[in-house]
From TrEMBL:
This is tRNA (5-methylaminomethyl-2-thiouridylate)-methyltransferase. The keyword Magnesium does not apply. One of its GO terms (molecular function) is tRNA (5-methylaminomethyl-2-thiouridylate)(34)-methyltransferase activity. GO terms for biological process: methylation. Residues 29-180 form the FAD dependent oxidoreductase domain. It comes from the Bacteria. Its EC number is 2.1.1.61. Gene3D superfamilies: FAD/NAD(P)-binding domain (3.50.50.60). Keywords: Cytoplasm, FAD, Flavoprotein, Methyltransferase, Multifunctional enzyme, Oxidoreductase, S-adenosyl-L-methionine, Transferase, tRNA processing. It comes from Vibrio variabilis.
Amino acid sequence: MIVGHIANKTPFSNYDALYYREANSNPKHVAIVGGGIASATLVASLAQRGIKTTLYCKDNEPAQGASGNRQGAVYPLLNGEHQGVSRVFAPAFLYARQFAEQAAIRFDFDHDWCGVTQLMWDEKSEKKLERMLSGKFPTELIQRLDAAQTTAAIGVESPHASVNYPLGGWLCPAELTKFNRTLQDLWNAHGSLQQRSSISDADRRRQMANIAKQV
Ligand SMILES: Cc1cc2nc3c(=O)[nH]c(=O)nc-3n(C[C@H](O)[C@H](O)[C@H](O)COP(=O)(O)OP(=O)(O)OC[C@H]3O[C@@H](n4cnc5c(N)ncnc54)[C@H](O)[C@@H]3O)c2cc1C
């Protein structure tokens, strides 16, 4: 055990802020404000832990805000130094993809893990994307493609090289938002949720966990 004392306290730094509240360690019912994908995924996560939620939203329907997009790209925001957002987004992307895959076992929503490709279409984007590649990430997360490989990957003639996120893809956030609320409806009605998974899910989770260890 290490014991010590603070010789010089910085004024006010050791006190809780006025708005600080201890988190409830055993919540039974949680109020959530908003009807977009952020609150809907929180609703689903809480439902899986057996916690009821009440959603407050100023709109009549879910996904009327930014999450109303019909198509959203899913890929990690990385940088060559692997600092800041990159350190959050690399594992968060893997988590989000797994979350969406588990959702897809239960409900239909439009999505495709077709990979995401960003073209080095001018000098500025080339510099930015090459810098990103200097982070030496696992190639399952991000890889460089020359023009011919890019053409083969996207199925459209490309004179440009690119970076490609092989595990990336797209999904319909509006549909996923509605699915997650349905999950909570099921929980509220029946008080239990059956987890379903398949062998390929387990394999996929192992693959994600291996990549996550590297980032
Ligand atoms: C054009 C566009 C393209 C995008 N493309 C992508 C993409 O390709 N990939 C990607 O990952 N992200 C993309 N994004 C970002 C992504 O859509 C948002 O980050 C995400 O939808 C935010 O979700 P949210 O649940 O936080 O907010 P929202 O979906 O905006 O939901 C907020 C909800 O809260 C409600 N609300 C707000 N204030 C109150 C209040 N006081 N009381 C009650 N209700 C309230 C609103 O009415 C709304 O329903 C894009 C965004 C836009 C606009």
